[in-house]
């Protein structure tokens, strides 16, 4: 039924392809001809010149002849022969003298002893007219913490305030922009950085509350707080101090000194010990006219831990005394004419401390006697804080109500300040200061204009001199006599 059959192929040519090929045209273009040119230059020829000095023997002969003529001045030879024996005797005598032992010549200009490196401020605090109430360096020496409040507000206040920190080692430091800013419900009256942990900052508030912040925590920096209870402070906290062993020590104008330990799990400060300055318990051996009036407690304006004895600390009551507390108070020093704003124990001698207050004087005390060993006139106004140098046994600094910071050197023959940091503005008091224990050439000063000045000290103010420790021992031994 089916058979194979071969058929011829049929091809159909594309008419579209032909039409397209016929429509194509060739086009071409060419750039303009590139012109080239070559040129050569050559430096000008150089010449060599030379000079020559006069013959050496001629110049030497002229100099010797001139010196010979000068030595032959009338009477010079006779004078030298007459005084030769006397000069030799004086030189031998000076070589055996010890009058200038330990003396080092200071070739620096007086004005160059201190220089301002930074002037830090928080714009919001400055606009509101807040004062710098306390400054403290971190244990690394790189971060400065600053507390804001008011020193002239005697009424109860609920005004919000700040604590700011600046890292001076940070690249691109902005003096008008703090690295960290912490808001507080009331004015901050005291501040202290931890001696070992750089992230911990303890603050005391005008409301009587004590807080410890952990600056490494970005969400909730409050590590622990005391809260408001029957055991906590009811008055402004004027001093807080962190200790590497037991925690936080706080003192208030209500006359209570409280010792806290940190319970970070519960987020609160746990009270482990408390002291109260009661009028009847304060020793009266040096307190003539110390009579009870009004409240039975004595307010505390300043506190200082002893670096030599962990269970001993000094407190400055509002009555103008300085009291050594070793649970309970064991000794009282001669009363002052007004409240003591600051006390600080010497880091180089276990029995010495310095105090200052509203009388404008700085008193060097010994723990062995009631009367001061030495008193220096610092200011005609208040002295808000005084602090020993961490490197010079005989040097301390005082912040005054006139805006000056005066640095004294007890090793000098004169009792005048060795250096003065002048006020930056008229009527702006220097309220607080802090030496840097790591970078020894830095000193921070807080002012009532809301600024913190970071000053650089010269080597003369921070490098210990020979026999300086023995001179401090001589001052301390005056108490024995």
TrEMBL record:
Keywords: Cytoplasm, Repeat, WD repeat. GO terms for molecular function: dynein heavy chain binding; dynein light chain binding. One of its GO terms (cellular component) is cytoplasmic dynein complex. Its main location: cytoplasm. The keyword Cytoplasm applies. The keyword Calcium does not apply. InterPro entries: Dynein_IC, WD40/YVTN_repeat-like_dom_sf, WD40_repeat_dom_sf, WD40_rpt. One of its GO terms (biological process) is intraciliary transport. It is found in: Cytoplasm. Residues 10-29 have a biased composition (Polar residues). This is Dynein 2 intermediate chain 2.
């Amino acid at each position: 039924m089916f058979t194979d059959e071969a058929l011829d192929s049929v091809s159909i040519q594309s008419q579209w392809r032909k039409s397209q090929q016929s429509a194509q045209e060739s086009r071409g273009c060419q750039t303009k001809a590139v012109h080239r040119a070559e040129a050569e230059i050559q430096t000008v020829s150089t010449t060599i010149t030379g000079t020559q000095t006069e013959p050496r023997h001629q110049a030497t002969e002229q100099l010797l002849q001139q010196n010979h003529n000068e030595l032959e001045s009338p009477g010079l030879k006779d004078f030298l022969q007459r005084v030769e024996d006397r000069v030799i005797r004086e030189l031998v005598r000076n070589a055996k003298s010890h009058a200038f032992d330990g003396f080092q010549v200071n070739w620096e200009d007086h004005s160059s002893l201190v220089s301002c490196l930074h002037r830090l401020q928080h714009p919001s605090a400055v606009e509101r007219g807040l004062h710098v109430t306390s400054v403290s360096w971190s244990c690394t020496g790189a971060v400065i913490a600053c507390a804001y409040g008011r020193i002239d507000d005697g009424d109860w206040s609920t005004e919000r305030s700040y604590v700011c920190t600046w890292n001076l080692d940070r690249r691109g430091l902005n003096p008008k922009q703090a690295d960290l800013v912490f808001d507080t419900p009331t004015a901050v009256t005291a501040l202290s950085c931890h001696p070992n942990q750089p992230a911990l900052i303890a603050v005391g508030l005008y409301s009587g509350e004590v807080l410890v912040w952990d600056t490494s925590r970005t969400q909730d920096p409050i590590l622990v707080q005391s809260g408001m209870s029957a055991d906590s402070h009811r008055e402004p906290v004027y001093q807080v101090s962190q200790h590497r062993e037991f925690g936080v020590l706080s003192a208030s104008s209500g006359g209570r000194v409280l010792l806290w330990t940190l319970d970070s799990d519960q987020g609160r400060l746990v009270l482990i010990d408390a002291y109260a300055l009661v009028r009847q318990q304060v020793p009266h051996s040096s307190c003539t006219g110390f009579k009870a009036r009004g409240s039975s407690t004595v307010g505390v304006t300043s506190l200082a831990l002893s670096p030599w004895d962990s269970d001993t600390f000094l407190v400055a009551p509002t009555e103008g005394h300085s009291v050594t507390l070793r649970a309970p108070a064991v000794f009282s020093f001669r009363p002052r004419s007004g409240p003591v704003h600051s006390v600080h124990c010497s880091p180089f001698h276990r029995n010495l401390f310095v105090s200052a207050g509203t009388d404008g004087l700085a008193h060097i005390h010994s723990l062995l006697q009631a009367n001061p060993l030495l008193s220096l006139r610092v200011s005609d106004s208040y002295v808000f804080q005084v602090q020993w140098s961490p490197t010079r046994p005989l040097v301390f600094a005082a912040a005054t109500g006139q805006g000056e910071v005066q640095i004294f050197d007890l090793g000098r023959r004169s009792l005048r300040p060795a250096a003065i940091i002048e006020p930056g503005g008229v009527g702006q008091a220097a309220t607080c200061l802090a030496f840097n224990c790591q970078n020894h050439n830095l000193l921070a000063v807080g002012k009532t204009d809301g600024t913190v000045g970071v000053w650089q000290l010269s080597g003369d103010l921070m490098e210990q001199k020979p026999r300086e420790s023995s001179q401090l021992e001589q001052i301390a031994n005056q108490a024995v006599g």
